[in-house]
Every structure is written in structure tokens, then in C-alpha cells.
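Q: What would this chain look like folded?
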Amino acid sequence: IKTKYGYDPKDIGTHSWRKGANTKLNCGSTGGPTAAASCIRTGHSMGTNRDLYIMGEAASDQVCGRLIAGLPIHLAEFAVSYVDFVYLDAEASLSGSAPQAEQQQRQAELDVKVDDALDSIFGKERLASNAQIRPLLRYGLASLLYHNERGAYDKLVKDSTLKVLPDFSPLRQSPVFSSPLIRELAQYATISMPWDGKRRYFKEASGLPPHVIMFAYQKQLMQSVESIPEKIEQILDRRQMMANMSVDDLAEHIANGSRFQGMANDIRALRDSIASLTANGLRQARGGQPSASAMPAKLAPDQNYRLLRQYRHASDGKDRRVPPTWRFPSKLPLQTMYQYWHCGNDLSHMPPMKYLDNNDVRFLGKRAGTTLGETRRVMQMIDQRARAEGLAVGDTMTLNQVNSLYHVGERAILEALDDGTPSGRQRNVSRLKVGTVMREIQKKKRLDRLASTGS
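A: My prediction, written as C-alpha cells:
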């Protein structure tokens, strides 16, 4: 940045970011927002009279937001909707092939799954006290899953081997990336354009300039014209002499038949089983036989393969529960760390961190055992408080169960720390890191010891 643009990134402050946003809003197109809209959106003063008599509204605010988000104001795609969870067969109800009542029932079932996912991530108790933020969290989750499904976070940064979202990012250890049930919702995360027939499932768009609306109408007209030849071909293909079925009709009837569907389901189940065994790390030892530490002679049906020492490290030839690429998720906030401690990462086949021992983390350096011990101590403080309140801490738990434990157990952390931060603000325990908790506990002990000695 310093070589290309001539300034040090450290010199960029809040005011500099705001000036950059204003530049983007007011440059590059004559179809941008008014000066008043950009000043109100970015918080700049417009003078006494203008500040008093000129008020911002939803449309002007939204057009600024769309521009800052990087949407192209000279294209019809500027009218894109927000990302939301919509049942995938919702379009069928438009053509009449699916009853509207059935679609609404499917959508209601999907909404329940989305609410369960939000509860798994943030905790049902925490969301119950902040119910007004749930719609915003829903759109945020949908947007994250939508872009992740399309590889946006796995793209390489220019002139670098790092991804847009690095593998060691704390976000990749959160339930959004580690829970299969949450990741399955990605197939329902969708957007809408004014011409694609799904607009009825989204709230009315705001902040669309008149020329963008005209672009959208033109796009819809172009797609209608381009689809005419294909529709004519389909009509001709289906009109056979002597009322015979066309090839397409035969293929459709065979594919939708019960026998064919049963075979497809069996093949899918077999493929999923093979993929699960492969992904869970069942590997062959160097001699071609299963490793003794990776594959016991007799495995209980409910044995979790993630708990086995299935990863062989080339550096010392030892088998461990984590691969050589694994790193401590030390930057995780406390609640997310508690989730990882008890649930692990299903998609990456990482075991719950509570099952790791010093041998599993020794390859990370001399302090690895100490870091694991400190993490275990903080997590056990939460567990002990939850048990004291009558809750059961099991070996295998769901994210919702873990969140309920944390909601009760975090009081133990709050009691072990000072009431407020050094700046006087109230502590948000769930956002603290394990390292911060340990430092603050040790600091409080030193102060208490000095106070008792002085008295």
C-alpha cells in the first residue's frame, strides 16, 4: 500500500475511512446520491439550517449503503436483494406446480431450522434477551453461508498464498464453519433480482435510482425474449404423432419412478458412508495395514472416530488426534472457545478440545502444554459453576446444550475478575480470550495479595 498509494497504512484512522467512503459515494457516477444523503449517512455536518431542515430517509440511506457495499450503480444488478433463507422449491409455487400452502409450510419448517442455528451459535438465553437483533443475525448468517458456498472466502489474496479468510482465522472454528447442520442451510441461502420471479419472498427494495429500475425492466424483457426459442422447442418436443410420449417425458417418468428413486437413495447413502469414513481419517499405515492406534481391533458402535489418534506426524512419527496443520484457536472469544472445547469441529473432523492431552499438542512448541492447561482450567471453571447450578456436563453434547451451560457458567469467570475494565466499562465476558482471562485472574490475585500484606 505504501509503495502503490504513497501512504502508511498506520496513518489511516476513523476520519480517513469516512473520507474514503464519501469519495466513493460522490465520485464515479452522476447517478449517485445527493450531497445531503452522503453527509447524513457518513455523519458530516451540513451547517445549522441544513442540519435542522434536511432529514434522511430510508431510500437515500439505502442507496448510500448499496454504493458503499460495492454494487455497480450502472448495472441492473444494483437492485439485488439482501441474502435470505428461502425454500429452494419456492419458485415452483409461482408456476402452479406446487400449492402455495405447501410452500408456506416448507418455509415455516426452514425458519425453525434457521432459528435453531442462531440459537446454536449465540445461545438461546442470550438471544431471548435481545430478540430485536434476531432478524439482523439471520441475514448475516445467510450472507456468510451464501458467499462461503460460492468460494468467496477460499479465494487467494492477490500476490499471496493466504486465503481471503485464512485457515487459522477464529471464524473457521466457530459453529458456522464447524457444524454440518448449519452448513446444510447454505443450499437455502439465496438472493433475488427484480426479473427472476423470487422477489415476492423478499421485502420491498429501497434505495433504487430510477435508471436502475429501467435497467431491471430491460433485463427482464431480454430474458423473456431469449427464452422464447427454448420454450418453442420444448413445445415441439412434447407434441409427438399418435400421442406417443417424447424422449424427455420418458426420461422424466423413469427418473421420478419409485424404483429409480430408491436406487438413487441407496447409492447416495453408500456414497455418504464411504465419504464419512474417508474424511474421518481412517488411513493405512506405511505397511498397508490399518494403524493400531488409528483402528482398534474391536470398535464400539458409538465410538467417535475423531477421538482416535489418526494423524501421523512426519516430524517425529507420532500419532496424534490433530493434524500437523492444526493450531491453537487461542483467538476465539470465550463462548466460541467453550463450544469448540466441548464440540470440536465436525466438518474438519477435529475432536472436542477437552480430549486433547500434552502428547497431542507437543509438536506446537514448549509452551503448548501450558496453553492447553490454561484453557482447561478456564473451561473447567465454567463447567463447575454449571454443575453447581444443577446442570449436567456430558461427554457428548449439542451446541444448544453447551450454550446453556455457558450462559450459567460464565458467572464464575465474571466473579474471578474485576467488575470493570481498566477504562471503567463493564466487562463483556463472552468476548474475552482465554489468555486475557488468565492474565486478569493472576493480576487480581497479585493485587489481593498485596492488599492483604499491606493491611
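Residues 314-453 form one domain.
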